[in-house]
Amino acid sequence: MTHAAVALDLGGTKTAGALITATGEILGQAAEPTPAQRGASAVMATAASVSRTLLDEAKERGIEVRPVLGIGSAGAIDPYTGNVLSATPNIRDWTGAALSRDLAALLEDVPGRPITTVRPVNDVHAHALGEALYRKNHGMTAEGTMFLVAFGTGVGGAMLIDGKPQVGKHFVAGHVGMTPMPHHRDSELFAAGSKTPEHMILENACGGVAFADAYRSAGGQAELSTAREVFARADEDASARRVIKASAEIAGAFLGGIVNMIDPDELVLSGGLAASGHSWWEPMIETFLKVRLPGITTRPVAASSGDMAALLGAASLAWSDRNPAAPTD
Question: Which SUPFAM superfamilies does the entry mention (predicted)?
Fold first, then answer.
C-alpha cells in the first residue's frame, strides 16, 4: 500500500496542501484562499477543509495516510505547544492561535483517517526543511549547517544544523528581515516604506513590498505597484535599475555578514528576488564577495526545491518520529 502524509503551507493569501510520500513524491494537491481578515477560526477551518479534501482523495485512491500533519505557517511558532506566539496583522487575530490543538480537533473525526497530531513550524523554517529534504532525496549535500534566506514580499530566514531547525530561546530565530539594514549610499530610497526611517531594517530594502515606493523615491515616473513591475522596467528605466542595484548590494552586504558570523556550509536563497535574474544576483554577489572574510569559500546559491519547498518541509515534519523543530530535552 502507498503511504503519504498531509502537508500544509498556510500563507496570508492561499492555504496549499499536498499528499507527500516519505521520499518527497507529490501524490495529490489542493488549495483554497486563506480568509486572512476573517480571523483565526476561519483560517483554521480553511486549513481543515484543504486537509479533508486531501484525506478524501487518499481514501478514494487507497493511500494510507499518516496520523501526523505537518504545516508551515506564518508567525513565530512554539514547537512544544504548537501555538502562534506572534504574527503580523496580515492574518487577523493569528497571534495566540492554538494551531496544533484546534486544527487537530477539526480533523479528529475523519472516518478511518483521523489526524491525531499537528506539527506546525514557521513558514521559512518549513522552506529550509523542504530544501534539506529535496537535497537529501536528490543526492545533494544536506548535512552540516545550512542558512536559508527568503527574499520574497518580506524577508525571512532559517538555520538548520544537520537537518534540525534552530528556533532560538523565544522561537523567533530566523527573523533576519528585522535586523538593522546595512549602510548604503542609497539607503534613503527605502525610507518611505519604513515606520522608523532612522532605524531601517533589512526588509525595508530587500522585501518586494518596498520596491514600488523606492522606485518613486528614485524619481521613477511610471505607475508601478509591485517589485515584478520594477524588474520588468530595468532595461529601459534608470530609476528601476538604481533601486534593484541598491537592494541587491544591501542584500549582499547582509549575506556577507551572515557567513562571517556563522560560517555555514551552505547559504541558500529563495523567494522572488532570488529568482529575479542577473540584474539582482550580479551586484549582490559582487558586494557579498567584498564583505566575506578571506578564506571563506561559501557563497550564495539558489534554492533547488522550487515552489514546493514549504510543503516538502511540512511533510518532513509529518514523517519524523518527533518534531525536529522542538528543542532537545
Answer: Actin-like ATPase domain
